[in-house]
Amino acid sequence: MRTDIDIATYKEKLLVEKAALEAELSEIGQKNEQNPDDWEATSPDVNRGETDPIDRADNIEELENNTAIVGNLETRLEHVNNALERIDAGTYGYCIVSNEPIETDRLDANPAAETCKAHMED
Ligand SMILES: [Zn+2]
Q1: pTM higher than 0.90, yes or no?
Q2: CA–centroid distance, residue 52 to ligand 1 (Å)
Q3: Residue-wise DSSP of 19-59
Q4: Disulfide check for 86: which of 18, 43, 79, 92 has CB 3.0–4.6 Å away?
Q5: Which residues line ion ligand 1, judged by CB < 5 Å?
Q6: Any residues with CB less than 8 A from the CB of 32 and at least 6 apart, and which?
Q7: Helix, strand, coil % over all residues of the chain, rounded to 5
Q8: Looking at the record, which segments are called Disordered (predicted)?
């Protein structure tokens, strides 16, 4: 476990982000009952059985947009949850590729970062 960084501060940031992501997700989606880690986009209007074809097309488009947004939020939430798990495991702050400590400015910019700058994928 790293002692050169304040893990409690990063944990706090991660928990705040997790709560924000879950709040956003619950606005446009719902948890899959069988798998609480999985979120699905909801569009109440589609479920209501709109009969006007134009409204229906709009609703389907909205559902598609929501599905894309839910996918992005879900991916981010997964990274945040993984980071929280690494805190519990004592491996937080180490690059998952090289095992080198992740640069502090990188963690400051993204507390869920999994790699050092040399192994950044994005
Ligand atoms: Zn690395």
Answers
A1: no
A2: 54
A3: HHHHHHHHHHEEE-SS-TT-EEE--HHHHTT--SHHHHHHH
A4: 92
A5: 95, 97-98, 100, 116, 119
A6: 38, 39, 40
A7: 60, 5, 35
A8: 27-53
